[in-house]
């Protein structure tokens, strides 16, 4: 309404809308912001004004298809070795070995660790979905040591006053450990999860099983790891070798 300065919005056509979107593009808005603008325009005309498919020919910006950043297993082991204490070690070990999102790890409660079945129950992960993922024997041993030393009450990892551990603290733990390990690239908690999926694929684990362990709604999300797994390259002789 501001852009067209008093013009009757019902008089606008697809060319007008495209010109407006070009203005937004020149402002260097992100692709998600442009898509949000398109959704708002379509909602106004199609739902509020009752004009279905009025602007169905509007071109949407394509999302960038970026490959996930992955660490080697050696790099991850080295990062874990450079944590400050058993609590920090358990946090980073679980992010990688169970393929957890940072929020999922924060929400873990003591009873979610099932040592008899050697699994971890993830309650209300992304999309409010529950799932079961892997519990490492080595991590379980570390968790028992951690439990005796830190004595958490409700959540597996707690901050002050038995509150949930903060997401920022996890980020800082990983950042400091990576720096001590001599890792030059910027390392994030989600990189450990991406590494989990990629390394399982490289070990020959079925994509469907990886999808279930990671809690992906669509197999398309899991398939991205086929683009970064390097085990298939081993049988290809490089042209310069």
How would you describe this protein?
With 241 residues, the protein is mainly α. It folds into 2 domains: 64 residues; 160 residues, Intergrase catalytic core (hpI Integrase, Chain A, Orthogonal Bundle). Helices cover 47% and strands 4% of the residues. The chain has a 3-stranded antiparallel β-sheet with strand order 1-2-3. The protein starts with 13 loop residues before the first helix and ends in an 18-residue tail after the last helix.
| CATH homologous superfamily designation of the largest domain | Intergrase catalytic core
CATH C-level class of the largest domain: Mainly Alpha
SSE series: HHHHHEEEHHHHH
Contiguous helical run count:
10
- Which structural category fits the helices and strands? mainly alpha
Give the count of structural domains. Answer: 2
Shape: globular
> What is the CA-CA span between the terminal residues?
63 Å
Largest sheet: 3 strands, antiparallel
- Rg from Cα: 24 Å
Quick structural gist:
The protein has 241 residues and is mainly α.
Write the topology of this structure:
Elements lengths: L13 H13 L4 H18 L24 H9 L4 H12 L4 H6 L5 E2 L4 E4 L8 E4 L2 H14 L16 H14 L8 H14 L4 H8 L4 H5 L18
Antiparallel strand pairs: 1-2, 2-3
Helix pairs in contact: 3-7, 4-6, 4-8
Which characteristics define this entry?
globular; mainly alpha; hpI Integrase, Chain A; 241 residues; three-stranded antiparallel beta sheet; 2 domains; 3 strands; 10 helices
């Amino acid at each position: 309404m501001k852009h067209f300065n008093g013009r009757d919005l019902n008089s606008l056509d697809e060319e007008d809308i495209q010109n407006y979107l070009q203005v937004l593009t020149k402002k260097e808005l992100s692709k998600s912001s442009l898509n949000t603008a398109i959704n708002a325009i379509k909602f106004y005309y199609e739902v509020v004004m009752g004009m279905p498919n009025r602007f169905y020919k509007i071109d949407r910006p394509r999302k960038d298809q970026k490959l996930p950043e992955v660490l080697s297993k050696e790099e991850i082991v080295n990062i874990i070795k450079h944590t400050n204490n058993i609590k920090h070690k358990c946090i980073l070990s679980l992010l990688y070995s169970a393929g957890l999102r940072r929020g999922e790890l924060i929400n873990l409660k003591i009873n979610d660790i099932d040592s008899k079945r050697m699994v971890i129950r993830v309650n209300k992960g992304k999309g409010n979905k529950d799932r079961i993922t892997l519990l490492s024997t080595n991590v379980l041993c570390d968790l028992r040591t951690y439990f005796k030393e830190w004595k958490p009450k409700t959540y597996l990892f707690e901050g002050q006053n038995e509150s949930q551990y903060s997401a920022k603290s996890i980020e800082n733990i990983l950042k400091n450990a990576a720096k001590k390990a001599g890792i030059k690239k910027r390392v994030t908690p989600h990189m450990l999860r991406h590494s989990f999926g990629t390394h399982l694929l490289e070990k020959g684990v079925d994509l469907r099983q990886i999808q279930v362990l990671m809690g992906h709604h669509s197999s398309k999300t899991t398939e991205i790891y086929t683009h970064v797994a390097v085990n298939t390259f081993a049988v290809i002789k490089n042209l310069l070798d």
